[in-house]
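Annex B, item 7. Sequence and structure tokens for protein A, then protein B.
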Amino acid sequence: MSGTFLKTTLRHIYREKMYAAINIAGLAIAVACCLILGLWLRNELTYDQHNKKHKQIYRLVTELNTNGKIDKFIHTSQTVGKTLTNEYADVKDYVRFLANRQLLLQYEGRSFYWDKTAYVSNNVFDVFDHEFIYGDPATVKNSHFCAVSESFAKKYWGSENPVGKTVTSEGNGIKITHVFKDLPVNSHYRYDVLFSDDASQNRPDSRYPPKYALWIQAYYTYLVMPEDYDIRNFKDISESFYKRHMAETGKELNMSIRLMIEPLADIHYNSDAGSDFPKGNKYYLYGFIAVGIFILLVACINYINLATARAAGRAEEVGMRKILGSGRARLIMQFLGESITFSFFAMLLGCCLVQAALVLTPINQLLGTKLTLDFMTEPMLAVWIFLFILGFGFISGIYPALYLSSIAPLSALARYKSGKKSIKLRELLVLVQFIISVTVIACTLLMALQMKYIYNKSLGFDKENKLIVTLRTADTIDKIPVIKKELSAKSNILGVSICNKIPGNIQGLSALMIDNNDGIPEQIPTKEMSVGKDFLEVMGIELTAGRGFQEKPDNSVLVNEAMVKKMGWEQPMGKNISINGNYAAKVTGVVKDFHYASLKSDIRPLVIRRLAADTRNVPPPQRNLMTMYLVLNLSPENIPDTLGFLENRLKEFDPEHPFEFEFLEDSLNKLYLSEKNQMVLIGTFAVICIFISCIGLFGLTGFTTEQRKKEIAIRKVSGASTTQIIVMLARNIELFVLGGAVIASLMAYYAIDTWLTEFKYRININENLWIFLIAAAAAMAVTFITVAVQSFRIARSNPVNSIRQE
């Protein structure tokens, strides 16, 4: 029986090639989009779950309370994990990471910078799963180790086993002991080089008295808890730990700390800690799920509309089958078989489109991951796709099957015509299609408007033609006065200064003792940066009160307007600020608020210190780890020549390190890369939605105009022009698009208003309602063109032929 069904379906597809092509094309594009989104969703929803102990691993988070101001961040002290493990039975084990700065690692003339490096406790491979390629993991606990990723190993040695090889970093030799496979893309913390924690010579707490050790937050700590651990029980551990080890010092510092834990698998989407790794955005997740459903719905609607519109053409077939003894159930099975067959062909074509998209387009880059469609390594993927075919075929085909199988045999043989209910349903489904299409178009336009606002918003400093050059090691930093003098002599370099943090991307908080309006010191969480004397001039930052830095370094600091407002200062000049407990400074100037961080966050209080390029007191182990940034204001003329000059001159001062530079504007744009990528993706899906809708509309218009040939002929005989007939045929559809635009505008308004909550500085949607008119107009224009192209042939045909055929 199934063979008969398949033979009938294939014969039907062959006979109506245009109908089959329209359906399969629309379904294939929808399937390809859903496959890509499905692969991405699977990747997103399984973050860190490749670790066998992921249900037992928790990340330790620190909540700092400073005078009622709560700040939550992922850093902890060095000893907290070990102490918790030793003193509390619930804590089974721990791992701590000390993230290192960017390292230049060299081997026989091959030099590469690596950002993802860390010192880690020796039990890391007992807690987190790694697949080893070279080296015995059992030896890790018994010796100093340096474990590197497969990508790292291939970069220097290709397919050769690098164990035993020695790379050089800042003059120090590092022996490779292990090589592990690259961590999965869906790991919240990824690294390429792990050093034994015992090898660290730069412990952040080493410069402070022992009683402050637990307050120096610089490590990432992960705890192993019992299976099915109730996270609420950790509150008692946190309170007990604080009372035993930190309460006394907390009173002295006028601060308190609460330890919290986050399940490993929840970190990517549910963590609210600051200074974190890049996290997932639930709104993106919901948005892409909605897009996938929308595209599937549009494709299903196409199939339903085309199938029901063709009812008159298939009525005779249904009537004859019923007269010959076919029951309704058999007919339903036949029509469902057709839709599943269409789904099967669409899936084959869709898989080809997915493979082409993954290879030929930047889809992985836009999604921020590495998707693959590999049935050999993931056979379950084929099973899920097969189930998807059945489900998709059933959903899209069930109504047409029920509708077509309900046609009475006598009415079918007496020139069957679609009923009013069928026509109304098709009109409703077309309305739904364009609600979806206009919604996605409006969302894309509003997102583009927000990104334009972000890129054009004044940041409080000049970002154009500003070059950031990285200087490494204390020896090079000692040469900054000479470097500045030589670079300033170049006519295309309009200004040179230095800073310790890149403007526009300042992370982290410092707890400083700051005088309130009454002169009483208070502990205040504050952003902090150190700059050269002429930093304000080079960056174009406005000084609103007091004076800037003088030629000779003194104990003066500058603050921003947000600090003045926060402290309630009536007269900020002369207020004391204590930095690191041993550096007393006085406020001598106030700068106008500028956006030192992303526009997703408010401008918080900021302290700007004078940075002196003096490294005489830096301990030897830390000298090679020092980093500073040159900030150069360049003339826009002949920038390549200026860059060449800079590279040649800086190589003379530091021949060991390559020339590292980045334009400030590029650095700032990276802050919004995920939003930009999302806008591009949503825009692409908007085009796909419209395209699929138009494919269906093209086919539907063809059938409806064919049924109205006699009416069109009479109108032409009565004097109607081709244009008037096309407008008549398009009028009803355009009314549906217009009605759908109203509903779509409300949906888009809500969606984008939710998306904009991520930004502290955002457009006002109410001031940009014209966007919805553009989205509606675009949809109406595309719709009219589609209907006009299909209607033109019949509108131009000889009316006599149409009347005779009737």
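Protein B:
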Amino acid sequence: MSAGEAPTTVRRDGGVGTDASRPDGTLKVTGEFAYGSDLWMDDMLWGVTLRSPHPHARIRSVDVGLALAVPGVFAVLTADDVPGELYYGLEIADQPVLAKDKVLYQGEPVALVAADHPETARRACARIVVDYDVLEPVTDARTALGHGTNSPSEDLHPEDPPVVENSREAALLRPEGNQIRHLKIRKGDVEAAAAAADVVVSGEYEVGMQDQAFLGPESGLAVPAEDGGVDLFVSTQWLHVDQQQICRALGLPPEKVRLTLAGVGGAFGGREDLSMHAHACLLALRTGKPVKMSYNREESFFGHVHRHPARLHYEHGFTRDGDLLFVRARIWLDGGAYASSSAAVVGNAGLMGVGPYVVPNVRMDCWGAYTNNPPCGAMRGFGAVQAAFAYESQMDKGAAALGMDPVEVRVRNAMREGSVAPTGQVVDSAAPVAELLRRLQAMPMPAPPHDGFHDADLTAMPGGVSNTTHGEGVRRGVGWAVGYKNIGFSEGFDDFSTARVRLEMTGGEPTVTVHTAAAEVGQGLVTVQQQIARTELGVDRVVVAPADTAVGSGGSTSASRQTYVTGGAVQEACRRVRSAVLARAGRDDWADVRDDLAAVLGDEAVEETVIWRHRPTEAVDPDTGQGNAHVQYAFAAHRAVVDVDVELGLVKVVEMACTQDVGRAINPLAVVGQIHGGSAQGMGLAVMEEVVVTDGIIRNPSFTDYLIPTILDMPPMQVEVLELPDPHAPYGLRGVGEPPTVSSGPAVLAAIRDATGQFLTRVPVRPEDITHP
């Protein structure tokens, strides 16, 4: 059996601040890396899920008799076979392991089958007979909340689900009807500011549902154990929270539910929630055999959460000189059928909702709603992405109304160190918003096609690969955007990570072993842990043990937090090891001791385990939204250049440029890679990526019809990385992964508007939006 770990012993220099090689890199590009879908055991069974074809229906009955009669079938399970609690959830326990009385979205799991071959399991699954009473779905967040012209006939979740222990918001309110959370921010006197404003601009904006589109589908292998428990090897983002939820479903204690991270083929938030985890464990315990589950691409679209679609109404007021006086905004986020992390996404969308600007007067309302659409939860940027499309559009609209350059109006209102956020929190480290924009301005622009578009390389034009144009209707545009994102978990969540570091002699050479439960999902965390250990202990040979639940929680690989929090834990554990070795040697000079470790250590190891926390945050006031909600802010800015065929509605992103402050680049090359990847996902949402949902039904659950940027779509990028240390963070670092996703999409949208002269308000932009405004 392979659990998918890459070998993690690297013998070379490569500490903090160097372009250290990734131990999994060669294996991945050569196709030798073992992902979760590659897991295998002799005599294992295959698990398959029966899913609802309806977005809203009552279940009258489930008949599994025909499925059980299929040769090779070992088990068929329904909700009645769940031995523990039926309901689980990332923050609110509102989602059934298997639907019992109702289904609330298309694709909801209803039954499970285990068989000796995947095709046998699928044939048996098709023979399960479910009698549905189909109901009218609620598919609009405002309607679900009663904010539209119509109100829903019933609450989708009539019960009062409990808030679970790992909820990220200490002040989280229990859902009320179809309202998951309502965040309010009240600062200053908006009404008086509106009366004093010289220029007021308003707009209605819409953001479509985006999929994480990770390349490795959900997969894992559950193995029953002799102690009556189960070992699960799974591709995930948060081992310990998965363990908590699985224990709840199985009715087993944590010591009998052991998780090990399998090779992860991308995540971006889509693996924070359970997918096949509990299902595979249920089947393994029922059959007494290992059970593998691996989704195909279509099932993956139903098997994980997506980015929340959003509707946003904004009103900005300025003085005639361009100073922001007030922002008034309402945001509706469609959480779909179950809460997932919607409460936290509401928090981020609202608390980040005016952008990285100084605004003395703010009235913000942000709602998350239950509907019968697919569940929505974490995705890179986590609420800040949706808000940025609106507030950056407003800054462009305000600049046009004022007759100002769009960069100048941003610089005039930019946050800086010492600025006060809408929550009343003081920004107490570098906030180089103006500098990021000025550096973007100084970057050279891409050269225009020689002698106009007609003599240009046709393949570089929008639709040029298909020879749809010779440049007759092509117009060029330039757009700017800046955004910011909170790093780490916020609003009073007890955010920590655990690291165990061991120093010993092996084969006559000092070896450091680092063990955490932090998930490597492709971002390079294994390398970062090695770099920190090499820097702190001066030992070249660093082994990173497989991530599992045998060590304390590392928290989620999300919120751009792992290098900060797990990096901080590894740093502190290494320093304690160093102190213990110095004490054993009776010396004060580590350099001297390091050269004599064989004599000092002998056959004994030195091991330290650290639970490390960043400085605390606090819940915001539920009536005003005031409070020190965040541990750190990170900032990025983008300039986009696009060519648009205004006759065909086709868009070609010619170039993106990005400036971003990362505090300290632990692995500079990896930092640039994160900026490229985040920018690609933001661009994708602006021009092509959308899960199309009609009346609760997903219309494009495949990579044939759900479009993501390819190498032909991704433009050249200029990237400039600033390193302005945060004094509160390990090595002064800032989270890197999410900020470029926040500002890249709005910059592309602004460039399309500049090219077309149309003030487009919805993303992704469709061809008909350009040709038929």
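Comment on protein B: DSSP finds 19 helices and 29 strands in the chain.
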